[in-house]
Amino acid sequence: MAKRPAKKVTRKKAPARKKKAAPSTTPGADKVARGALGALIAVAVIAVIFALELPSMAARGLGGAMGDAGMNVRTIDVKGVERMESEPVYQIALGQRTRALPLVDVGAVRSDLLAFPYVKDARVSRRYPDTLVIDIVEREPVALWQGRDRLFLIDNEGVILERVPVAELPDLPLLIGEGANQQYEALERLLDRAPTLRPQLASARWVSGRRWDLNVATGEILALPEGEREAAEALDNFIRVDRRSPLLGIGVERYDLRLPGRAIARSEQFEDARERAEREAAEAAAAASEQEVTEDSE
């Protein structure tokens, strides 16, 4: 049998795929991206150096190189400053031995800031490439303290914030006496037991480091006993009696509440009346005695 001639098979070439164009990048954006990546790598390297406690010279060298590359402190971002002057904060931040942001000792900056009376807490951090961020938590003035023959603003912990001129006194409670500033929170707990008395309080004197004399706006002095519990009970009893029959604003100068369950009223008016009564009684007794002697002689 004669073999059939084999058919020629022609294969068509597949159409060539079109290459996708690479996304175009501007030279500026590419430079910024490379710079940011380099900064992150450098920061990570410094962190590793400090974590492994490698020679500090290496860390300083790398940090200085980053400073030369543009990562110096150029901006101080201070937040939370309302009452204190902000200038000292900037002076501390800019007074470091180096301006290279990676080498700024944020712990030392925080410690220096905490030395200021108004600074209750502080957080210092770096924001790359060139910003030092300082968050301040300020102490709040809550009272005036008269001590050392001067007037000072204090916070609730008794920390002295600043001196206050007499002509610029704020409308705050006045505490008098050595150590009274350290007793502010105890006084607040005491006044919480007598909320009606709080707005009438003119000042509070800490006596001999043991107890309070409360000076009321109507002119009376309430002499409280020693001990926070004893003072609270004495004040409770006084307020209870005052609700039934007013004790304030009737001419009494001083109520001595140091004896449990008693309120001894003292005033010059009452003292004068008592002395007059005692004098008249003595004179009457003397006159009666003379009369008896006369009758006996007769």
Automatic annotation (TrEMBL):
Keywords: Cell cycle, Cell division, Cell inner membrane, Cell membrane, Membrane, Transmembrane, Transmembrane helix. Essential cell division protein. InterPro entries: Cell_div_FtsQ/DivIB_C, FtsQ, POTRA, POTRA_FtsQ_type. Residues 1-28, 270-298 are annotated as: Disordered. GO terms for biological process: cell septum assembly; FtsZ-dependent cytokinesis. It is a single-pass type II membrane protein. It is found in: Cell inner membrane; Membrane. This is Cell division protein FtsQ. The keyword Cell cycle applies. It comes from the Bacteria. Residues 71-139 form the POTRA domain. The keyword Protein transport does not apply. Residues 270-282 have a biased composition (Basic and acidic residues). HAMAP family: FtsQ_subfam (MF_00911). Residues 1-21 have a biased composition (Basic residues). It holds the Pfam family POTRA_1. Belongs to the FtsQ/DivIB family. FtsQ subfamily. GO terms for cellular component: cell division site; plasma membrane.
